[in-house]
Amino acid sequence: MRKARTSMKPRLAFWLETANQAACEIAALVRYDAVILDMEHGAIDQLAADRLIPFSTSLGLTVYSRVARAERVEIQHALDSGADGVILPQIRDATHAAVASGYAKYPPLGTRGVGYSRTMKYDATDDAFFAAENRRVACHVMIETATALADVAAIADLETVDGLFIGPSDLSMARGRGAVKGTKADQDDVRAIAAAATRANKIWAMPASDGVMYALAHELGADYVTVSDDLTALRAGLEAGLTIARKG
Description:
Blueprint: E1 11-16, H1 21-29, E2 34-38, H2 46-58, E3 62-66, H3 72-80, E4 85-88, H4 94-102, H5 127-136, E5 138-143, H6 146-150, H7 152-156, E6 163-166, H8 168-174, H9 184-199, E7 203-207, H10 211-220, E8 224-229, H11 230-247
Parallel strand pairs: 1-2, 1-8, 2-3, 3-4, 4-5, 5-6, 6-7, 7-8
Helix pairs in contact: 9-10
């Protein structure tokens, strides 16, 4: 389990919205640290994820899966495919977090079911494996609802929760501020979540698509930040090509 850190720069991650192996290769080449398979909003199905996860880990990328729903089957599919961790969306409160995060850990810590899969090298295993897998796998709970924010300290304290992932866009909408703008109120929410994670000695992460939010993430000791995604990067590249052509 990663512990909270406050001195180093955050690791750099990107969202993968489509089953694009080349995007993972390029990200590894330019020295990204982690990829998040977006199973909630992206166009990646279970079969594609089962191929992308070992491919990405072979490139040296840490692989997290933001599952479509914080439910047993989705979480177990991601972890049985070998993901380094899961990110659980739309958590309502501490009670919901306790149930959902339990699906990511084997008993007696949690309630993850046993499936003989890639993580077990497709073979039988022993008690040592289950203990090691509970340590290896990260379970990060998204704080993106007003009720989860109210319960953030209790969520961070859960033994089955390894970290918090801030969802600033949904959180701003849920808090009645509309689209996230990086305002003082937005930043105050980040500070409150970061403080709860740090008090519990857990890591935390967030999207940081501009310099202001990246600086805040660095200041407060985020473990990793997402700074792009495969589709945004593609658009930026295509727009750069148009700019060159229009100057010609």
